[in-house]
Amino acid sequence: MKIEKTISNWGNFPELEVSEYLLDNPTKAEEILRAEKSILARGNGRSYGDAALNENVISTLNLKHFLAFDEVKGVLSCEGGVLFSDILDFIVPKGFFLPVTPGTKFITVGGAIAADVHGKNHHKDGCFSEFVTQFKLVVDTGETKTCSRTENTPLFWETIGGMGLTGIIVEATFQLKKIDNSYFYVESIKAMNLTEIFQLFEASEDWTYTVAWIDCLQKGAHIGRSILMRGRHASREQLSGKQKKELLKTTPKKNVRIPFNFPGFVLNTLSVKLFNLLYYYKQTSKITKNVTHYEPFFYPLDAVLEWNKIYGKNGFIQYQFVIPKEAGVVAMEEILLAISNSKQGSFLAVLKLFGKNNTNAYNSFPIEGYTLALDFKVNKKLYLLVPKLDAIVMKYHGRIYRAKDSLSNANLLNYVKVKRTKFNSLQNRRINNSLS
Questions:
Q1: Most buried of 17, 145, 205, 381, CB within 10 angstroms?
Q2: Taking a C-beta distance cutoff of 8 angstroms, is the pair 18, 53 a contact?
Q3: Is the per-residue pLDDT at 347 higher than 80?
Q4: DSSP labels for 60-79?
Q5: Mind listing the pLDDT tens digit for each residue in 196-242?
Q6: pLDDT reported for residue 271
Q7: In what order do the strands lie in the sheet with 316-324?
Q8: Do the beta carbons of residue 322 and residue 370 sit within 8 Å?
């Protein structure tokens, strides 16, 4: 089935008129591939920029079946369109958790592999690909190939982080993490500036999960004012009486929905400054400790459905970069100063520490260092800010995350090495045109 429609990714920028094929059976992929010269598999559209956009797309959302589950070894096999949210609902009551998860559970397994997603535990566990044992990939000839570390190995590593340019991931098998409850012990620590937050990260490297919210509009002695959140799986002794009665509680079903695009004036320098002020000072003590369910710790924004509408009808971009560890403080200071001077503040600014990268996964984004993700409303000033940020990232030998990009310098994105096939994207063409 083919549908003509307008689509965009989570940032609502850019938009594109497309022909969308609905794939509900992997055996039908060959027929679709014969019909088009250029095409791209697309999951739930939770990347931010133009990476999952093409004039012809194949939606994998109907590939939503669980195929096998080994409860002894904790190994799950499922189709490529299964959402992380559905996996959590299935595995948590059985005493398992995702080994790696980004900040939303509304992504597909195929998308997680194509972007090689990372989470709050990269410094300990690496990316999602570390736990993927094999996947089935429909290549441009229509043939389905089984890829693993021992079978079709070059294609396995090319696909991981390859942004869908090698084919359609129709099935995947991966290792889960064993748990005995669905709660996390979390400490939140306030930091006055960049130097302090970097010291806290390094002092917290033994913690399984670390992440920091950062106020990107501060200057001077308070530049990089932050709150570090570090967590680990809670022991049963740390649980409250109610939590002990609901040991393997899954996702709450109550959500708030944003019903319409906010007017453009709602998000401005003043409102972002006010939000940052309130967020920082709502925690009245230097450190707080609590035991919380995985939902607010990993997926706080998922509680607000369609929160992307807050940025208005013009949409927004997410700018995520990584800087080598040795350049951390100096580079971040330059970046934050450029943002503050531009008055294009981001109220969703997330800082994380990456561990060493897997050199086999050469298309994967992380390198050892610090990564910062920022949301910016699309406007004229943004087109002036992004080149300035790119220049700083390039100066310190950093890189940009392709799953978030829509405007950055192609030289920061060209580390994705994929042979030319009929699978293509707006982003890939933009990069290749810029470099040609």
A1: 145
A2: yes
A3: no
A4: -TT---EEEEETTTTEEEEE
A5: 999 999 999 999 999 999 999 899 999 999 999 999 999 999 999 99
A6: 87
A7: 287-293, 183-191, 226-233, 209-214, 349-354, 369-377, 316-324, 399-400
A8: yes
Q: For 259, left (φ over 0), alpha (ψ -120 to 50), or beta?
A: alpha
Average pLDDT of the chain to the nearest whole number: 94
In three-state secondary structure terms, 196 is helix
**Strand ranges inside 297-432, DSSP E:** 304-305, 316-324, 349-354, 369-377, 399-400
Q: Identity (one letter) of the amino acid at 399?
A: R
Q: What is the DSSP string of 403-430?
A: TT-SSS-GGGTTT------SB--HHHHH
Residues in the chain, how many? 436
User: What average pLDDT does the segment 43-62 reach?
Assistant: 97
291: left (phi over 0), alpha (psi -120 to 50) or beta: beta
For residue 274, what are the contacts with CB-CB under 8 A and spacing of at least 6? none
232-259: pLDDT as tens digits:
999 999 999 999 999 999 977 777 888 8
Between CA 287 and CA 191 the distance in angstroms is 10
Structural domains in the chain plus CATH codes? 183-412 (3.30.70.2520)
Beta bridge partners of 78: 66, 172
